[in-house]
Amino acid sequence: MARRYDSRTTIFSPEGRLYQIEYAMEAISHAGIVIGVLSKDGVVLAAEKKVTGKLLDMSGAKGQSYGGSGEKIFLLNSNVIGGVAGITADANSLINYARQAAQRHLYMYNEDIPVELLAQRLCDLKQGYTQYGGLRPFGVSLLYAGYDPHYQFQLYHSDPSGNYSGWKATCIGANNGTATSLLKQDYKEDISVADAIELVLKVMSKTMDSTTLGSEKRAYYLALRFVFRKRGAAQIADRETTVEFATLTLDAEKKPKAKIYNPAEIDALLHKHGLAKKDEEGSVAAPIPSDQTV
């Protein structure tokens, strides 16, 4: 029965469902997880990117302040950073649209675009792609972490239907149910940025598919990658995961300051919070220079 109503985004089923939107959301559930936590003095975003091949070059652009060649966390404006989960090509299109919308607002009003207004602009675009024939929904969800002078720090989430909502802590992507449960248990209203970073790292370590602790896996750190090798008796299988991390806080002049962490800083965070993977002998694996092979 569903096949009669899922060929076009403009056809409702007898139950009032748009199947194409549900299929788009299903694509998001298989993407790497993105977690956002709102604190009293900032916002924290962390994302998991699953590397599909060991020959993929992860060094990318040299602009570390913009996340290098990151595909999960982007700087949308000086006061907004975004995390995406879903189809990468769709995400790139929306990211470019968001940046242009933010710059148009800055040009017209000489001020940074409010976070909610930016979310509305993207959601208007996404909603239009569910209403006209010949179009398909964007297969991507976004988290918007930003600062507004009137409403302070904010965290929003939008989905392929064009719906958006504000959150204190939320996540999108694979294993989002488990991550949400952990966030509900440990989130506190007056949490600081430092505590939010610790909470996000804790949730990431428990929800990422490639970070299951066990004596058969040894973890190393390489650039932005956590490379996990599962050593079996008959074969060696490589699984790689990229972790991207960012915060938005205020500087000494009370202006928003977006920071996308570089490899060394991510490594330092892991060691600081005791989350660096230990080898079989119990010692913490030291960072491996990017010019070495693992």
From TrEMBL:
Q: Where in the cell is it found?
A: Cytoplasm; Nucleus
Q: Which GO terms describe its biological process?
A: ubiquitin-dependent protein catabolic process
Please state every residue range assigned to the domain named Proteasome alpha-type subunits: 5-27
Which InterPro entries does its entry note? Ntn_hydrolases_N, Proteasome_alpha, Proteasome_alpha-type, Proteasome_asu_N, Proteasome_sua/b
> Which keywords fit this entry according to its UniProt record?
Cytoplasm, Hydrolase, Nucleus, Proteasome
The UniProt entry lists the main location of this chain as cytoplasm
Report if keyword Lyase is assigned. Answer: no
Q: Name one GO cellular component term.
A: cytoplasm
The cross-references to PROSITE patterns, in alphabetical order and at most eight, read: PROTEASOME_ALPHA_1, PROTEASOME_ALPHA_2
GO MF terms here are: hydrolase activity
Q: How does it assemble?
A: The 26S proteasome consists of a 20S proteasome core and two 19S regulatory subunits.
Which PANTHER family does this one have?
PROTEASOME SUBUNIT ALPHA/BETA
Its function, per the record, reads: The proteasome is a multicatalytic proteinase complex which is characterized by its ability to cleave peptides with Arg, Phe, Tyr, Leu, and Glu adjacent to the leaving group at neutral or slightly basic pH. The proteasome has an ATP-dependent proteolytic activity.
The entry sums up its family as follows: Belongs to the peptidase T1A family.
Mind telling me what this protein is named? Proteasome subunit alpha type
